[in-house]
């Protein structure tokens, strides 16, 4: 019972410190690890794979005969995919990707969470505007700028510089004497 209470306190403290963004970060990290293990073990549904052909001109790039295993994420047509393998052939990069449903769910949940902070009913925003303008009009805010660097506090002294050039000029090219 004490262990559950201490875990609950740690979770509560964690939510207090990092908020739900930490939760979403942890969910994304766990999903990344799980998908990495699935892809490395070839434990995925081949019907959920797509091949994306990207035209790309890379000079002196050698064509690949086989696909190479790669890691990464791609979003295509609103769907989230994990990169599985790639191959470069002629002027085209072929990417084989697997659909990642869980990553898409996490992104949608995060978007809904953020939307709760930004979307307000029309009446609430109007009242907030009135209150904000009231505060700006009747509550004075003062600020001052202080310099902490010595370079800004030193006075500038203008000096006139006179550049002196030698009176006589000697050419660096010497010509042979003229014959008499």
Structure description:
With 180 residues, this protein is α+β, with helices and mostly antiparallel strands. 41% of the residues lie in helices and 18% in strands. The protein has 3 helices and 5 strands, in the order H-E-E-E-E-E-H-H. Helix 1 (2-40) crosses helix 2 (101-118). The model has no long low-confidence stretch (mean pLDDT 75).
Briefly, what is this?
It is built from 3 helices and 5 strands, in the order H-E-E-E-E-E-H-H.
Which of globular, elongated, flat, extended, rod-shaped describes the shape? flat
Radius of gyration: 34 Å
Helix-strand makeup class: alpha+beta
Major sheet summary line: 5 strands, antiparallel
- Percent of residues in beta strands: 15-25%
Give the low-pLDDT segments: none
Distance from N terminus to C terminus (CA atoms, Å) equals 120 Å
Helical amount? 40-55%
Order of secondary-structure elements: HEEEEEHH
Integer average pLDDT: 75
| SS field, number of helical segments | 3
- Give a count of the beta strands, DSSP E runs of length 2 or more: 5
Topology:
Elements: H1 2-40, E1 49-55, E2 68-69, E3 73-76, E4 79-89, E5 92-99, H2 101-118, H3 122-138
Antiparallel strand pairs: 1-5, 2-4, 3-4, 4-5
Helix pairs in contact: 1-2
Keywords:
single chain, 3 helices, alpha+beta, five-stranded antiparallel β-sheet, 180 residues, 18% strand
């Amino acid at each position: 019972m004490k262990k559950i209470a201490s875990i609950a306190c740690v979770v509560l403290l964690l939510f207090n410190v990092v908020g739900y963004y930490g939760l979403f970060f942890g969910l994304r990290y766990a999903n990344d690890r799980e998908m990495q293990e699935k892809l490395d073990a070839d434990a995925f549904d081949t019907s959920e794979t797509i091949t994306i052909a990207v035209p790309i001109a890379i000079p002196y790039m050698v064509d690949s005969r086989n696909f190479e295993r790669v890691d990464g994420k791609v979003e295509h047509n609103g769907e989230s995919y994990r990169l599985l393998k790639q191959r470069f052939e002629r002027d085209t990069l072929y990417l084989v990707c697997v659909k990642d449903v869980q990553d898409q769910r996490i992104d949608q949940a995060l978007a809904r969470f953020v939307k709760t902070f930004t979307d307000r009913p029309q009446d609430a925003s109007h009242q907030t505007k009135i209150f904000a303008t009231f505060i700006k009009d009747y509550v004075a805010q003062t600020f001052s700028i202080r310099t902490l660097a010595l370079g800004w506090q030193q006075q500038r002294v203008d000096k006139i510089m006179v550049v002196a050039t030698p009176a006589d000029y000697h050419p660096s090219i010497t010509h042979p004497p003229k014959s008499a």
